[in-house]
């Protein structure tokens, strides 16, 4: 076999691909040039260069001192136009979707892993039903049943005059009022379906790279019934499953999203149909109408069967990641929404059947639905906690948040958020229609919402009091930590700077910044406390409603005077707090629609919460990483293949997570030309602790071995970024470099005559060591082959023949 020609380092210029973090940054800021030029991309996400660097590859001699800077801007994926403010309404859906990805990392226990995914999807389904039931409570019960059926309430509102039972019009019958009001929750479900379908097309329908010369196009065999729980089995060896983020189908979940969208849309329509059918059928049974009673039973049976089909669709299949699955399910599943809409139409016709003797009084039958939903959510959360704990016991790790119970805790938060939002809307609408009644007390012309919502309002002040204690403890601990760090700060700068004069104010500020940065590590316990308290108080609210007989009125009716007084006070205060929170919620959303700065703040929330694909709830805000990761992967793969040059992908904050995910998708031959530079990175501090199956110690360790050239910069004053805790043992180079000095100077010096700011999480490029670390990374990259030799390089590295080297 003839000897291979000697390899050489590419003559082309090196490239630095900059990826910004949360909150976004403009290309002009990232490139330090007011005239950035778009190289590729669109208005949503694009890559920019300085005008002088547009043709850098043709003039490599100009870039001997450093790489060509290139900025990838993705902020418009989460905080672009004003419609993003409407995503605030989808907050519970986003939070429950996070719970899916918080599954503990483990080897084996495949059934338990699949059970975990099923339980999260069922919880997500209950949130859709709860939202729809709340819309039915407002439109059907409060407006069409109670207010329109009460002369005192309907006469005060001209827009309800044609529905008033006192006017004896065609719409005066309760069934016809309910059929008309059902259009409101049905329209809400249709809107959610439309937004889910539209955002998928706009954000997530980006196919992963499939060019075998650029990235891996292989696919692992998919077992029958493969679920989202394919375990990561540790360091990759031949015939071993690849890390999840390296699989070709991870960032393309078209089939599951379409499947869940059909099931949740059908569940919403069936909930509305069940609300109006139940009320009409109950009247027909009492009225002894044989024909209508038979039709009611037939409709009820059809709705129950349809509901079971929805449950089967949700439980039967999860994510498929080992291959890019672009197929859709069979006609039965894709036609679920249309079939459910037909059933809703039949239910509306059945309810509109003439019943002259039907009179609406009290509350609409079906108030027990809220109690059933909240109990079901509590049972599912407990079952999820049991499954998570079993998985965590199999592979314990000291850094995992809440001993592997982060997923159940976050799922409980999603349920609590949904309960407060839906209960708040019902309480506010009921108080508005009630007119003179005290909020939440059921006094006035209508009974008001179900008593369970009053109990939910009563437990909110208790939850706030419970939260006050840990907040005070954290504040005291932060102050004590700052005092403890003060002499450390003075000693540290005294050893670095000559003739440092201690300044107590300056020292307190630096030590306080470091102490406050440590608060991030206490977040898991605060989340656990809130979740546990929400579970207990929610259970207490259900028991209180059950003991009260689900009769609207005071929450503690019939109890001793002292207990009733305390309950009434807590209920009134909680009702006002719900109302205030809802008003602030709507105000913030409206301000964000008009104010770009407020919209950017909301965008930060989505930057963190919508990194993950929609795996449990299809109505959650869209996953921007399903656009950003393929963008970055395509750019790195095609640029290195075309030029044969070296590339360093430089990610700050959330951008470092995108960068790592994109590097995971590259072929081994391409990774040999790519270095990874992260700074202010939450890879281990947040993602490793909360998402251990995907960013835990084992997956990150494997990434560190595969990338070869990785450097992570961090500061002790950074509340988000931190070390990744890799390398530094034996011959393996350490990935972390830090903590960096912050501020760069303690006092005024000859080189820095003005006070230096405490940068914390921002402006890592200002550190003198940044450029040096970037240059060292580029120098550590092995010699790159000319473009025409890429195939030989891949063959030598064994691409496509082992689980470890396939991406």
Automatic annotation (TrEMBL):
**Biased composition range(s): Low complexity:** 771-789
Q: Per the UniProt record, which residue ranges are transmembrane?
A: 85-103, 115-135, 178-195, 262-282, 294-315, 336-353, 365-390, 402-426, 455-476, 525-549, 569-589
- Biased composition regions of type Basic residues, renumbered to the chain: 796-807
Native organism is: Streptomyces niveus (Streptomyces spheroides)
Designated name of the protein = Integral membrane protein
* Keyword Cell membrane in annotation: no
Q: Which UniProt keywords apply?
A: Membrane, Transmembrane, Transmembrane helix
For the keyword Transmembrane helix, the answer is yes
Region annotated Disordered, chain positions: 206-238, 728-807
């Amino acid at each position: 076999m003839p000897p291979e020609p000697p390899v050489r380092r590419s003559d082309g210029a090196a490239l630095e691909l900059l990826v910004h973090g949360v909150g976004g940054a403009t290309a002009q800021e990232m490139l330090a040039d007011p005239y950035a030029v778009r190289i590729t991309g669109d208005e949503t996400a694009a890559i920019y260069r300085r005008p002088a660097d547009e043709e850098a590859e043709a003039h490599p001699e100009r870039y001997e001192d450093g790489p060509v800077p290139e900025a990838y801007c993705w902020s418009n994926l989460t905080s672009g136009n004003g419609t993003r403010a409407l995503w605030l309404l989808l907050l519970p859906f986003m939070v429950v979707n996070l719970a899916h990805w918080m599954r503990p990392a483990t080897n084996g226990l495949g059934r338990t892993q699949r059970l975990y995914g099923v339980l999260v999807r069922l919880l997500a389904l209950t949130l859709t039903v709860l939202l729809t039931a709340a819309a039915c409570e407002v439109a059907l019960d409060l407006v069409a049943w109670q207010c329109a059926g009460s002369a005192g309430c309907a006469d005060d509102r001209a827009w309800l005059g044609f529905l008033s039972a006192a006017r004896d019009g065609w719409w005066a019958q309760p069934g016809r009022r309910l059929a008309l009001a059902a259009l409101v929750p049905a329209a809400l479900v249709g809107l959610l379906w439309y937004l889910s379908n539209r955002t998928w097309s706009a954000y997530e329908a980006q196919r992963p790279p499939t060019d075998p010369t650029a990235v891996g196009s292989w696919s692992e065999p998919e077992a029958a019934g493969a679920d989202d729980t394919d375990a990561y089995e540790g360091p990759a060896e031949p015939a071993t499953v690849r890390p999840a983020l390296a699989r070709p189908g991870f960032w393309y979940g078209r089939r599951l999203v379409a499947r869940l969208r059909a099931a949740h849309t059908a569940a919403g329509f069936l909930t509305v149909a069940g609300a109006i059918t139940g009320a009409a059928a109950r009247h027909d049974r009492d009225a002894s109408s044989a024909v209508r009673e038979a039709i009611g039973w037939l409709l009820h049976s059809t709705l129950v069967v349809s509901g079971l089909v929805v449950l089967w669709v949700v439980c039967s299949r999860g994510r498929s990641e080992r291959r890019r699955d672009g197929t859709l399910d069979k006609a039965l599943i894709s036609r679920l929404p249309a079939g459910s809409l037909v059933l809703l139409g039949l239910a509306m016709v059945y309810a509109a059947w003439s019943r002259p003797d039907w009179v609406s009084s009290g509350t609409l039958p079906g108030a027990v639905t809220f109690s059933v939903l909240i109990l079901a959510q509590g049972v599912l959360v407990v079952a999820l906690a049991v499954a998570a704990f079993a998985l965590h016991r199999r592979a314990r790790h000291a850094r995992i948040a809440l001993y592997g119970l982060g997923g159940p805790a976050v799922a409980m938060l999603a349920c609590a958020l949904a309960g407060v939002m839906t209960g708040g809307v019902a309480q506010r609408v009921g108080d508005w229609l009630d007119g003179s009644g005290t909020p939440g007390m059921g006094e006035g012309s209508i009974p008001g919402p179900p008593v369970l919502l009053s109990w939910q309002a009563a437990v909110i002040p208790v939850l706030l009091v419970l939260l006050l204690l840990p907040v005070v403890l954290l504040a005291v601990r932060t102050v004590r930590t700052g005092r403890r760090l003060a002499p450390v700060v003075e000693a540290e700068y005294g050893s670095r700077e000559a003739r440092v004069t201690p300044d107590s104010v300056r020292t307190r500020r630096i030590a306080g910044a470091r102490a406050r940065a440590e608060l991030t590590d206490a977040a898991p316990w605060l989340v656990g406390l809130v979740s546990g308290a929400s579970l207990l108080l929610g259970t207490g609210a259900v028991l209180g409603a059950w003991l009260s007989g689900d009769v609207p009125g005071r929450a503690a009716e019939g109890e001793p005077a002292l207990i009733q007084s305390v309950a009434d006070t807590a209920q009134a205060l909680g009702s006002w707090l719900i109302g205030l929170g809802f008003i602030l919620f709507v105000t913030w959303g409206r301000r964000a629609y008009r104010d770009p700065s407020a919209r950017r703040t909301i965008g930060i929330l989505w930057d963190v919460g919508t990194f993950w694909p929609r795996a449990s709830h299809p109505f959650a805000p869209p996953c921007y990483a399903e656009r950003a990761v393929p963008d970055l992967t395509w750019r790195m793969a095609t640029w290195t293949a075309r030029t044969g040059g070296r590339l360093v992908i430089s990610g700050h904050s959330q951008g470092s997570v995108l960068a790592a995910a994109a590097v995971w998708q590259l072929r081994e031959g391409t990774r040999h030309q790519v270095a990874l530079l992260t700074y202010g990175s939450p890879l281990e501090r947040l993602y490793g602790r909360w998402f251990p199956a995907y960013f835990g110690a084992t997956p990150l360790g494997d990434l560190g071995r595969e990338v070869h050239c990785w450097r992570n910069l961090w500061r002790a004053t950074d509340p988000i970024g931190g070390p990744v805790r890799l390398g530094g043992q034996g011959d393996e180079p350490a990935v972390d470099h830090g903590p960096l000095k912050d501020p760069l100077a303690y006092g005024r010096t000859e080189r820095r005559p003005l006070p230096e700011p405490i940068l914390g999480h921002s402006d890592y490029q200002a550190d003198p060591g940044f450029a040096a670390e970037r240059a060292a990374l580029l120098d550590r990259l092995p010699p790159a082959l000319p473009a025409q030799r890429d195939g030989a390089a891949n063959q030598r590295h064994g691409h496509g023949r082992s689980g470890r080297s396939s991406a």
